């Protein structure tokens, strides 16, 4: 079983629910080392004093915050932990909100929340079931690894899920970032109708297992090809942008192609279940 990365208690009103926090996801990617070009010499990173050029042990490194005029305030780890949230083991719920009310842009990372122990599992189940019935998520803050997080807790089947969130001032205003957005309702009616037909012809259920990180697969294949001295397979180039004058015809052709693919999939014979071996 995995070890919890945070233990503490969810509090709402006078109720305290001991919980354990576990990572819900992991990323898969190819691990690379760095080398100097045309050699097999590894590139290493070291913590070096920029004045003396000498390497510094990790235990001898402190954090410093610039306060202006080239001056810094140095802070030890225990000083940072002494500030109220530093040793926090409590996630105090501020309010309960409708789950659909939360804009997904605020979600950061997902964790599983488990009961703190067998003796408190009943209280955990009570909070989970109450949120399920109400369709609400709990919003609060917690401190983990020296950083305070805004967090949303929601019920998901037989467990609770915690999602760390960005604070409001961490989410950029798109008006400050993007230029040239077209006004709403600018599309022609026939183009809009054809686009909706295309969407409908491509509609389907959300099945996470239908999707795979094919880029990592290609990188692994590239490594094998180069390692075996074979010719590297080059991917197809990205398609050219659709010209606005051709938009309707491109949409129409896309609908026809999608409908053909659906027709072929529907007419394909279903796979027969494997016969059980006689015992």
Number of H/I helices: 6
Derived from helix and strand composition plus strand pairing, the structural class reads alpha+beta
Percent helix: 25-40%
> Termini distance?
35 Å
Architecture of the domain at 6-26 and 82-169, CATH level 2? Answer: Beta Barrel
Instruction: Write down the Rg.
Output: 27 Å
Oligomeric assembly: single chain
* Residues in β-strands, percent: 25-35%
Shape annotation: extended
CATH fold category name of the domain at 6-26 and 82-169: Ku70, Chain: A, Domain 2
Number of strands: 9
Along the chain, the helix and strand elements come as EEEEHEEHEEEHHHH
Q: Report the CATH C-level class of the domain at 6-26 and 82-169.
A: Mainly Beta
Largest sheet: 7 strands, mixed, barrel
* Mean of all residue-level pLDDT scores: 87
Spatial order of the strands forming the largest sheet: 1-2-6-9-8-7-5
Low-confidence stretches: none
Explain what you see.
There is one protein chain. This protein is α+β, with helices and mostly antiparallel strands and 279 residues long. Helices cover 26% and strands 25% of the residues. It has six helices and nine strands. The strands form two sheets. Strands 1-2-6-9-8-7-5 form a seven-stranded mixed barrel. Strands 3-4 form a two-stranded antiparallel ribbon. Strand 8 (147-156) and strand 9 (159-165) form a beta hairpin. The longest helix is centred in the last third of the chain and has 21 residues, at 247-267. The chain is extended, with a radius of gyration of 27 Å. The mean pLDDT is 87.
